[in-house]
Amino acid sequence: MCKSSPLSITFIIVFTLTITGQSLHNTAPKPNRKQAELPEGIEVTIALARLGDLTRPTLRERLKQMRQPANLSNNIIVQKRVESENLQIANNKRVDQLKAALQPVLDYHDRSRMPIYVLWSDQPKAYLVDRAVLFITTRLMLITSDEEIRGIVAHELAHEYVW
Q1: Cα 113 to chain center, whole Å?
Q2: What CA–CA distance (Å, rounded) separates 96 from 43?
Q3: CB environment 16-54: b (16+ within 10 A), e (fewer)
Q4: For 45-82, what is each residue's pLDDT tens digit?
Q5: pTM for this structure?
Q6: How many of the other CB atoms lie within 10 Å of CB of 113?
Q7: Which of 13, 56, 123, 138 is a good FRET partner for 144, with 20 to 30 A between their CA atoms?
Q8: Phi and psi dihedrals of 126, rounded to 5?
């Protein structure tokens, strides 16, 4: 029994090192993390050649090709969402100003006909439903400037690219 004990311990150590991918004789230095993350010369050239033109218009065109056509909104989608949220639709002069302020963002994303509904709520939220309708709450409308809400809406529309 005592004679097999060193053999079994050796077996356990070798087995453990094999499973973890380590070696008893591994003396090679580990690569520096910065060196491993930063590609050099030819790798960068090959990657850029594969990606092609990285200008804004070209990237925008690629994103357009990736995105599916927008769903057509209908009153059923709107009604179901409003009922599920248990909120009322707001309609006043400030809502009309908000919709006018958001029009450039919608135009930029080729969603100029996307309906926008403002719902009465104390929670600041904006969300896109079924790639067809944009909902914004009155609280968000009140606490943000036009520039901020344009950014928020652009963010929501960006979800559509990876839908």
Answers
A1: 23
A2: 52
A3: eeeeeeeeeeeeeeeeeeeeeeeeeeeeeeeeeeeeeee
A4: 777 677 777 787 887 787 777 766 666 666 777 787 77
A5: 0.57
A6: 10
A7: 56
A8: -145, 135
